[in-house]
Amino acid sequence: MLKTYDYPEFTYRRSADQASGAVRRHPVIVVGGGPVGLSAAIDLAVQGVPVVVLNEGRTVSVGSRAVCYAKRALEIWDRLGCAGPMVDKGVIWKTGKLFRRDREIYRFDLLPEDGHKMPAFINLQQYYLEEFLVRRAGEAGVEIRWREKVTAVEPADDHVRLTVETPQGSYALEADWLIAADGARSFSRRALGLEFKGQVFNDRFLIADVVMKADFPPERWFWFDPPFHPRQSTLLHMQADNVWRIDFQLGPNADPEEEKKPERVIPRLRAMLGEDTEFDLEWVSVYTFQCRRLDKFRHGRVLFAGDSAHQVSPFGARGANSGVQDTDNLVWKLKAVIEGKAPEALLDSYDTERVYAADENLLNSTRSTDFITPKSEASRAFRDAALDLAEKHPFARRLVNSGRLSLPATYANSPLNTPDEDEFEGAMAPGRPAADAPVEIGGRPGWLLNLLGSSFKLLCFGAAPGVLEVDGVTVTPLLSGRDFEDTEGLAMQRYDGKPGTVYLIRPDQHVAARWRAYDEAKLRAAVNRALAR
Amino acid sequence: MKLNTEPNIERPDDFYEALIELHRGLSEEQSRQLNARLILLLANHIGDMQVLSEAMAAAKEAPA
Question: How far is residue A291's CA from residue A310's CA, in Å, rounded to a whole number?
Answer without folding.
Answer: 8
